[in-house]
Design goal:
18 strands; 13 helices; binds zinc ion
Length: 392
Amino acid sequence: MTSTLITNIGELVTNDPAMGDGSFLGVAHDAALVIEDEHVAWIGPASKAPPTDAREDIGGRAVVPGFVDSHTHLVFAGERSAEFAARMAGERYTGGGIMTTVTATRAASDTALRVHTAHLAAEMLASGTTTIEIKSGYGLTVADELRLLRIAGEFTPETTFMGAHVVPLEFANDRDGYLDLVCGEMLATCSPYARWIDVFCDTGAFSAEETRRVLAAGIEAGLLPRLHGNQIQHGPGVQIAVEFGAASVDHCTHLDDSDIEALAASDTVATLLPGADFSTRSPYPDARRLLDAGVTVALATDCNPGSSFVTSIPLCIALAVREMQMTPAEALHAATAGGAAALRREGIGHLSVGARADIVVLEATTFVHLAYRPAAPIVARAWRGGATSPPQ
Ligand SMILES: [Zn+2]
């Protein structure tokens, strides 16, 4: 067992209200923290730190829990910058470009997909993300969905089967046939490689009835439900997520009062994806309304080549503060503890004794700089599971 003291922490965000100032962020000053192997073993005033094998003085910088990005589509090939440029010239986002990525992904080798995913995962770690969820959904054949989930599993245990992303072109005249495949052979082949089941429940994607069918089949196969909903238009996504006890319903751009009431009365997290709203020039969700109603909110990137080619949680925090009426403290909490809640994980998203040592040192004296200095190289260094990663 090796132990490392991280000391001279000017501002430590723990997300533990029992620590420090008693706020929901549990902010302590002049603090120190001990890592033992993969976990946090001690937290307290720097002056009372116990002896350790190694010592790191971080010079008064701020420390926050590693970001939990609970919604990505990281395994894919190609890019869609022309589609982005067309949208910025006035075209509307419809989700129709997904097949472009499906075609490129099917044509890519395992090695090419693996190298590309590793590149994006490294970009995420460099911006402070220590946990990622990854969905399939750019294969849409039994063999390709399996391939994507196996590669995703090399990067994270939080893998999601999303055969119900869109209906592929070859099934354009046979939706039911595709759903039979998704709920039958594809699910049976993929479920050993996934923890979660997800469906794109929205205009132009899957209907309420189709969504219920896929979620029920996934649950029957032992997967846990989560959902894309209410992105493009108001629809039944939030209500279905709550009905199925989903861990999270993601996007939540178009909500009515009954959606907010249903979320507030449930354990389902509302995961907001401001990178997608930014990249599709869409309205942002009203995070203020959700928070004021008592809904648990998470922030994630939705990293994908079509609607949100964003790997940076600090950018999402800045957008959430500027455009979604969240305070810097609420946005940081949503990107850490909120993401952990959206993945139903207890040992991440906070810094307490026993938590995984996912630790981000900011090139700043306070976490507020995450929103205050958008696009600055804000992460000085990070530890993931107690292992240090070099600065950028
Ligand atoms: Zn998504």
